[in-house]
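Fold it.
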Amino acid sequence: MNASKKNLPSKLQMSSSGFTLIELMVTIAVLAIIVSIAAPSISTQLANQRVKSTTATLANALKEAKVESIIRRQDVTLSYNSSSTPKVIMMTIPDLTTNPSSVSTIASYTISDKSTVTQTITPSTVTEIVFQPNKKIADNATVVYTICDSGSDSETPKQVSLTGIANVNIINAGSC
C-alpha cells in the first residue's frame, strides 16, 4: 500500500499546507506585547550600567592619583572637565625638567557623554584635587562626586567621596 498526497482527500490536503494568516498575526501580536513590556527594563539596566562604569572609572582615577603621588614623591593633580567632549578626567604632575609652571599629563580617563558627574569640593576655594606624597589632599579638601545618567530618570545615583586623607568611598546616594 503506497500512501501519497494524491490518495489523500482534498480537505486533508488543504489543511496541512502551513500556517494561516491569523496564526501569524496572533504570534506577532504576542511578541510585540512581550517586547513592549521588556523595553523599559532594558533601558533602565543600561542606564544603571553606565552609572556603575563611570563610578568605577572615577574611583580608579582617584586611587591611581593617590598611588602615583606616593611613588613619584611629588604632588599629583586630578581635574575633571565636564564641559569638554568627551568628558575627561586628567591626571597631571608639574613638569620639573623644563618649566615648573607647566604640567605633564600622566593619564586621562574618558567618561560616557550620557553620564552626569557633579563635583562638590569643600572648601569651596579649591578647584582641583592635589594629592600629596604624604597621603593627604592639599588644603585638607574633601570631595563628593555624584554620578547620574542623563538617558534615564529611574537609575540609582552613586556617590564617590574623597576624604582629606585620600580615602575613596563609593555609596548609593544622592539625587539627580
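Residues 24 and 30 are 10 Å apart (CA to CA).
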